[in-house]
């Protein structure tokens, strides 16, 4: 009896929680059913248009045809190694890195400057904010068409004004040394106003009392910026940096419109390379392989940024 | 009563819905709906003109309802057509860049038009005989018709006649040879110190245009760009192309009469219109744009020669994609024949500046009248006598880009012509390799 007693206890105690867990799960599921129902439409669309397409890309990346009339056959990772061996791809990656760094840093710097200058709301600053935000509202393709005229060699708006100062007029979009920087200017012009919004929001969150205390302690404007405002804006910086880098990979409309990656591939970015492989070379396998590599890089970046944000949230 | 009223209402609604559902089925009995994809590759107002043309077709053909779909540049049109074919909904007809036909035929994306021609009771020879002989090379593949020439062009030399007179040159005796042209360009270049305020000559170089201009210069230099009989060979690393690129480069670096770098077509025509460039080489397709916008007297002339007078054709043919239902195919064929008839062909030519591929178009009274008023349009037609097909290979666009990237480097002073062309040849051979592997190098 004395043996049965303890044996009975665990059974009783273990059976109850198991039922409990099941019950709790069902009740929890019932409770969150409306939430799942609400999520369903977007999940369906995500599955259809995002994950479905990604799955297809994954499969396509594994197949290739040897000659034009030959059937597709499984090649494993051959497409990926072909992409990595393609100098046009590595060139595009290098261009994209220059482009990402060269657009992210100036546009974030400008955005912060604008936000600091216009942080107090009055009629003038509101008007200026609107003016600086305007480029965000112009579609990239329209902006590109506009800038094509500005950059037109000899007769464009830029050469019309700068032309008086320079001895030799640069061919802004036709010189492989300059074209990428010309493209970058448009991105900076277009994105700085957008990032300004985030910094303006971030500045609202800087605690008033801390600023006042610093003021009373005799901290000058630089000290307050260096030791209070910038540290408080750290999450905003992180967020905006991630957005800026994602933009540098995903927004290439102006490359399509203005240069088609030229001259001599000098403005070829990764997304445009994928487009070329898919439609110009008609090589779905290689295009899919390049897409997979890009997706992996972007996912890595996103995961990293989420982790940094999460640790910040969880921290003191 | 209330119940029955609701019922009536419900029935009425159901009736409407059923009607709406049934409508497409009814439409099947009505006009055959077809899509026509069309690009706008040059300056001007082509999209509006296309709207006018299609409206006229629909008014005259109640059993067909054609819709013109604007699809961007020549390259974009190929992309969109291929996407539509892949999605299982090919357009019924496409105005396709004439040099993409071979590549599409290799990929089994074109309808062989021989059967449609035969069904009309004509022979291939009779059908093709309507068009200028220079255009047939890009429409016929392996002795079968795959395209119908719609609007075609050749490169022309445009001269600002006022500026020529100013420089003591006679615009009625345009340059005949590269030597003459170099001399003219030198005389037409104006400088203030080191700074050029007026360029003597501009030749466009952007993807698509650059390859065409290289073919033009190479042909005038006695050469060939590609093997006209077989899609697996290009002749980049040859003396004739080396001479062509070296001369172009000399205009930039040695004579300094041509702006450095790669300049796209619209920038070249803007420079010409604004007086910043005194001469340009550009498609006949830009003729109407120049005529409408130039505020000065201009002249057009044949492309000058170094070895022989020869130019490639450009422009587009009408094609029928593979995989269409028979009724749509038939409707598309009706549209194509209508669009390439002498009257319509002539109208389109006058609206756009392209020449009309149908020779009979030049015998219509409207056209005779037009040519008398605009003798510059006549030059484009006359140049057809010395025209040859446009380069078309397996993977035309990448093979072309293999050359263009190198030419751009030369024009920017980053490479010498010889090494650039050797690199272009190597890259193109690599691109063409899979096709050669299953054709010329597939041995018993």
UniProtKB/TrEMBL annotation, chain A:
Provide the protein's localization. Cell membrane
Entry's Gene Ontology BP terms: transmembrane transport
Predominant place of localization:
membrane
Q: Which InterPro entries match?
A: MetI-like, MetI-like_sf, UgpAE/MalFG_permease
Which of UniProt's keywords are assigned here?
A: Cell membrane, Membrane, Transmembrane, Transmembrane helix, Transport
Could you give one GO CC term from the UniProt record? plasma membrane
- Domain ABC transmembrane type-1 spans what residues? 93-305
The portions of this protein that span the membrane are: 33-54, 97-118, 130-158, 178-201, 233-250, 287-306
Q: Which Pfam families match?
A: BPD_transp_1
Q: CDD domains per the record?
A: TM_PBP2
Topology in membrane: Multi-pass membrane protein
Q: Secretion signal: which residues?
A: none
Report the sequence similarity comment from the record.
Belongs to the binding-protein-dependent transport system permease family.
Q: What is this protein called?
A: ABC transporter permease
From TrEMBL, chain B:
Q: Where is the signal peptide?
A: 1-27
In terms of superkingdom, the source organism counts as Bacteria
Q: Name one GO cellular component term.
A: periplasmic space
Please state where this protein is localized.
Periplasm
Q: What is this protein called?
A: ABC transporter substrate-binding protein
Organism of this sequence: Bradyrhizobium nanningense
Record keywords, A-Z: Periplasm, Signal
The similarity annotation says:
Belongs to the bacterial solute-binding protein 1 family.
CDD domains (UniProt xref): PBP2_UgpB (cd14748)
């Amino acid at each position: 009896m004395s043996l049965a007693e303890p044996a009975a206890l665990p059974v009783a105690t273990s059976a109850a929680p198991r039922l409990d867990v099941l019950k709790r799960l069902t009740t929890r599921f019932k409770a969150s059913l409306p939430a799942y129902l609400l999520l369903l439409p977007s999940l369906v669309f995500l599955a259809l248009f995002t994950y479905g397409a990604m799955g297809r890309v994954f499969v396509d990346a594994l197949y290739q045809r040897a000659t034009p009339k030959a059937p597709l056959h499984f090649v494993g990772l051959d497409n990926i190694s072909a992409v990595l061996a393609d100098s046009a791809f590595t060139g595009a990656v290098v261009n994209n890195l220059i482009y990402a760094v060269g657009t992210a840093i100036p546009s974030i710097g400008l955005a912060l400057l604008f936000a600091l200058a216009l942080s107090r709301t009055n009629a003038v600053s509101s008007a200026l904010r609107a003016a600086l935000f305007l480029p965000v509202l112009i579609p990239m393709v329209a902006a590109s068409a506009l800038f094509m005229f500005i950059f037109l060699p000899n007769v464009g708006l830029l050469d019309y004004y700068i032309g008086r100062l320079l001895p030799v007029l640069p061919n802004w979009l036709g010189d492989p040394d300059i074209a990428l920087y010309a493209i970058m200017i448009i991105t900076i012009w277009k994105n700085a106003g957008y990032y300004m919004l985030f910094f303006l929001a971030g500045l609202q969150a800087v605690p008033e009392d801390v600023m006042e205390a610093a003021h009373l302690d005799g901290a000058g404007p630089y000290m307050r910026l260096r030791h209070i405002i910038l540290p408080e804006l750290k999450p905003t910086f992180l967020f905006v940096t991630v957005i800026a880098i994602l933009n540098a990979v995903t927004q290439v409309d102006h490359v399509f419109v203005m240069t088609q990656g030229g001259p001599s591939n000098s403005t070829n970015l990764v997304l445009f390379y994928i487009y070329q492989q898919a439609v110009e070379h008609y090589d779905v396998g290689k295009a899919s392989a390049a897409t997979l590599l890009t997706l992996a890089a972007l996912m890595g970046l996103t995961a990293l940024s989420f982790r940094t944000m999460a640790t910040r949230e969880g921290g003191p | 009563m209330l119940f029955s009223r609701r019922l009536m209402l419900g029935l009425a609604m159901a009736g409407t819905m059923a009607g709406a559902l049934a409508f497409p089925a009814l439409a099947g009995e009505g006009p055959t709906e077809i899509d026509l994809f069309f690009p706008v590759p040059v300056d001007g107002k082509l999209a509006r003109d296309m709207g006018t043309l299609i409206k006229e077709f629909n008014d005259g053909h109640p059993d067909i309802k054609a819709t013109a779909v604007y699809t961007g540049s020549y390259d974009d049109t190929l992309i969109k057509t291929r996407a539509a074919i892949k999605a299982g909904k090919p357009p019924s007809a496409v105005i396709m860049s004439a040099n993409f036909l071979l590549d599409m035929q290799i990929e089994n994306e074109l309808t062989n038009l021989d059967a449609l021609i035969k069904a009309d009771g004509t022979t291939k020879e009779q059908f093709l005989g309507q068009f200028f002989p220079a255009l047939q090379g890009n429409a016929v593949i392996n002795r079968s018709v795959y395209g119908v020439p719609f609007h075609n062009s050749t490169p022309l030399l445009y001269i600002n006649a006022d500026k020529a007179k100013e420089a003591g040159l006679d615009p009625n005796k345009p340059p005949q040879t590269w030597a003459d042209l170099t001399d003219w360009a030198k005389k037409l270049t104006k400088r203030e110190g080191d700074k050029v305020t007026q360029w003597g000559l501009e030749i466009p170089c952007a993807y698509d245009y650059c390859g065409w201009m290289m073919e033009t210069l190479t042909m005038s230099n006695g050469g060939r760009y590609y093997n006209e009989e077989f899609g697996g060979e290009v002749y980049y690393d040859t003396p004739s192309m080396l001479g062509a690129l070296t001369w172009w480069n000399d205009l930039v670096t040695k004579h300094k009469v041509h702006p450095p770098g790669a300049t796209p077509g619209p920038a070249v025509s803007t420079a010409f219109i604004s007086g910043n460039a005194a001469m340009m080489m550009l498609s006949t397709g830009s003729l109407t744009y120049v005529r409408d916008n130039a505020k000065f007297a201009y002249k057009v002339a044949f492309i000058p020669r170094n070895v022989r007078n020869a130019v490639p054709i450009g422009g587009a043919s009408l094609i029928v994609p593979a995989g269409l239902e028979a009724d749509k195919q038939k409707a598309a064929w009706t549209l194509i024949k209508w669009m390439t008839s002498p009257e319509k062909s002539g109208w389109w030519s006058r609206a756009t500046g392209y020449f009309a591929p149908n020779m009979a178009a030049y015998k219509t009274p409207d056209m005779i009248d037009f040519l008398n008023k605009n003798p510059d349009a006549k030059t484009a037609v006359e140049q057809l006598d010395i025209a040859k097909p446009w380069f078309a290979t397996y993977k035309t666009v990448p093979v072309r880009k293999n050359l263009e990237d190198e030419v751009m480097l030369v024009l920017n002073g980053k490479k010498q012509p010889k090494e650039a062309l050797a690199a272009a040849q190597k890259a193109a051979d690599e691109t063409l390799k899979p096709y050669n592997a299953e054709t010329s190098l597939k041995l018993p």
